[in-house]
Amino acid sequence: LHDVPLLDVRDVEVAYGAVTAVRGISLRVRSGEVVALLGANGAGKTTTLRMISGLLAPVRGSVWFDGAPLAGGPNSSPGPNAGPGPNAGPSRDPGRGPGLHRRPRPRPRGSGRPSSAEPVPGRDSGANLPVHRVAALGISHVPEGRRIFPAMSVAENLTLGSFLDARRSREGTRRELERVHTLFPRLAERSRQPAGTLSGGEQQMLAIGRALMARPRLILLDEPSLGLAPKLVATIFAVIREINADGVTVLLVEQNAAAALRIAHRGYVLDTGSVVLEGTAADLARDPRVRDAYLGAS
Ligand code: ATP
Predict the structure, then answer these.
(1) 221 CA distance to ligand 1 centroid (A)?
(2) Which of 37, 141, 184, 233 suits a disulfide with 220, CB 3.0-4.6 Å?
């Protein structure tokens, strides 16, 4: 059983209309790992996270979480009744049926990308779990740009996160809130403040805190260091390390490759939608191709 990766992305392709953003990538995250997803702008990192969390459906390939399918079918077999796949063990989600599709979502306005091209629904209708089902299985997504609710207070934003906790209990939520406040004392101080008035760094803390309130097994972090001052970047990375030490598995998308590789166990480098390199963080940090392209080694 230890050989089953917590997250298994197999040969996944994702397209926005005619634009293929991810071209058959495969990656694995084992329970307890921090795995970094590196690559230049437009490499497909965000698309990969959005596909894992159920915001986008793959055109082909499949995604497995703890041995159960999240997206795609067993080996992309066609038809609505693809039947149980090789890994279709006892399902942790008995309500799942063939009728569920991931709902494609337009990117938010102002993201600078064309919204006319919508992602195409997956051809495999076997298991394209929608976002809330993926979340209920224990995957929390901290999207790029944070997406906190600006008019709501810090405390309310955190409470919303706990609604995604499938094992929610008053006591569990209370303990998790305490934990989040210990990780981010600033959030405790600002509890009643409207989230939109927080600084960028504080909003990033809130976004991570809100994801933790769901008590995930796997957290997907999209560019947590983006736009933060160096000191705050260090804080955020230290917290990610702590979260992982607490038993949460981490898939981390980062442009800051140096910082990411310092806390990651392993990493994948994406280039124009494909995995071009993978290895331990130490090997990647030493690799001349990574050093030249992403670590700014001179
Ligand atoms: P960044 O670090 O800049 O966020 P990324 O590696 O996360 O880059 P993605 O955001 O996944 O890259 O984008 C991958 C490709 O898909 C890019 O070429 C991008 O222009 C394209 N793309 C992303 N979203 C859409 C969309 N809604 N419609 C059309 N194309 C899109």
Answers:
(1) 16
(2) 141
205-226 pLDDT per residue, tens: 999 999 999 999 999 999 999 9
Q: How many angstroms does the Cα of residue 64 sit away from the middle of ligand 1?
A: 23
pLDDT at 188 over 90: yes
Distance (Å, whole) CA 250 – CA 53: 13
What is the pTM assigned to this prediction?
0.82
CA angle centred on 153, ends 149 and 217, rounded to 5°: 65
Q: In whole angstroms, what is the distance from residue 266 CA to residue 141 CA?
A: 19
Give me ligand 1 centre to Cα 42, in Å: 5
Query: Whose CA is closest to atom 30 on ligand 1?
Result: 16
As for the ipTM of the complex, it is 0.94
Mean pLDDT, range 245-253, rounded to an integer? 97
Ligand 1 atom at shortest distance from the alpha carbon of 39: 6
* Closest CA to ligand 1's atom 31: 16
pLDDT at residue 147, as a whole number: 84
**pLDDT-wise least confident of 70-84, 102-116, 141-155:** 102-116
